[in-house]
Amino acid sequence: MNDTKQISYAAVVTGASSGIGFAVSRKLTQMGYEVFGIGRNFSDDTLWKEDHVHPIVCDMLDTNRLCDHIRQIKSENRIRVLVNNAGVGYYGLHEELNPKKIQELVRINLEAPMILAQQLLRDLKKHAGYMINITSVTAGKSNPHGCAYGATKAGLASFSASLFDEARKYGVKVVSIAPDMTKTNLYRNADFREGDEEDCYLQPEEVAQAAAFVLSQREGMVITELTLKPQRHRIKKEKRF
């Protein structure tokens, strides 16, 4: 699918109010999709005032409400793309986490994408669609000081690979995009952030371009995994109060 108008198809993007999800939503509108962006809070950005963009305020932890929204979208649209982007990160020694934070990590980073996949898989089969799961480079390595976060992203990557093998014969493309450190608010709960130099982090728009690249391939060829890294690995320590 190329950058041509395809208003007859819809896309669902989670974590759409900022960062990678916002950038992906904007890119999908440029590609002609009717975009339903799910997030907690939406700004007055002009994107959300365009005709083919629909902000949906919903807490990803509220499963019943989330599924209600999905059922409503499904009843009125031909969904061809699902982007599971919403995520939360808690870092530090594992013993310093608490059960609530661990549950939030698992439910938002792993449970919600699995539920949305279940809710929308028949629609994606019907339209030979795409499921793009935003994982992380942490999915494929050891993650001291981020054990639980890395585990959820590894779980999402594993789920993506298995679901592709399960659904590929129906024309469904399941893709993992694994960004390294990206300039977003994911690290708001951490004692570090991306380095100051531009070659030490990714921009959300670059992840969105990767998603567009995945969607632009011919039918019959699938990019199942895509890893994005900045040229240099450098973080900046922050004081925790």
TrEMBL record:
<dbReference type="Pfam" id="PF00106">
    <property type="entry name" value="adh_short"/>
</dbReference>
<dbReference type="GO" id="GO:0008202">
    <property type="term" value="P:steroid metabolic process"/>
</dbReference>
<dbReference type="InterPro" id="IPR050259">
    <property type="entry name" value="SDR"/>
</dbReference>
<keyword id="KW-0753">Steroid metabolism</keyword>
<dbReference type="InterPro" id="IPR002347">
    <property type="entry name" value="SDR_fam"/>
</dbReference>
<comment type="similarity">
    <text>Belongs to the short-chain dehydrogenases/reductases (SDR) family.</text>
</comment>
<keyword id="KW-0812">Transmembrane</keyword>
<keyword id="KW-0472">Membrane</keyword>
<feature type="transmembrane region" description="Helical">
    <location>
        <begin position="6"/>
        <end position="24"/>
    </location>
</feature>
<dbReference type="InterPro" id="IPR036291">
    <property type="entry name" value="NAD(P)-bd_dom_sf"/>
</dbReference>
<protein>
    <recommendedName>
        <fullName>3-oxoacyl-[acyl-carrier protein] reductase</fullName>
    </recommendedName>
</protein>
<keyword id="KW-1133">Transmembrane helix</keyword>
<keyword id="KW-0443">Lipid metabolism</keyword>
